[in-house]
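We read letters as residues; the integers encode the fold. Take this protein.
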Amino acid sequence: MWAYMNGRGYEFPSAQLGELADCNDLLTDSSALRDRLADEGYLLVREFLPRDDVLATRRAIVEELDRRGDLMPDRELMDATIGPSGPSSLAIDSRDPAVEGLFQHPAFLRFFGKFYGTTAMRYPRVLVRIKASGGHTGIHSDSVYIGRGSPNILTCWTPLGDIDAEQGTLALCAGSHKLDSFAGLRATYGRHDPDRDAIKGANNAPGHFSFDLDDVTERFGGTWKSANFRAGDVLIFPITTLHCGLQNHTDRYRMSADARFQPADEPVDERFMVNEQQDALLRNREQVARGDRPAITMKQARAKWRI
């Protein structure tokens, strides 16, 4: 199988794009899970959620896409085949009961409460991502978007259906959260904030460091890894782990959602405490992207940061 990023193909699995290992054998041992996360920078949990619950959420989304005319007629609805006119509007409101209900499943707070050893909370704002053919997400760490609260925030990436590497799964750079070779990057790029700073992200995507997998591993080290996912699986990682969404190389929409968790008694990032994106919060990054205010490029910022 081949996976794609920034127009380049990577055999999967291979030395350039390895395979994530699940941690299901450790689920009864929270201490071992914490050690695994600290060591590897991720936790892949297979069958974390009931498959039927995830597929019910997927069905609600694809039915909405079908009503908008975004799907190919006379195809299996749940395949979400992209229609002949291409996508019209792929924004899905995460306040939709089908989405909100999925992330209220007790499995989440039960798992994170045991993991943290204290009461856990989920940030109300959930991000639903739908990628058409060619769609991808640049390399970034979540610390640049949700870095104003607890340092112990964990992202939980949830595929909304069966997704293989060719369709554009999430890939992460194992080791980027802890290796000394990434220390300068974590202390500079990892602490910048597109809602505050005048820095254009790579390809003018706010907060994105690069779109080139090799740009990271050749300069800093680490190993890119991904997996073929099934509905019900989740991938959990700290906000310091570099990751990206691989390119969708199929004729079907790729659907996923991001939720964030942390200990309930630690400081929160207020930007994510409402389940919507307030326009005022995006004003700075949009002005930078449009060129309405003086800014430097990510390439210039990297030179300034000496990374």
The chain has a mean pLDDT of 95. Residues 51-68 form the longest helix (18 residues).
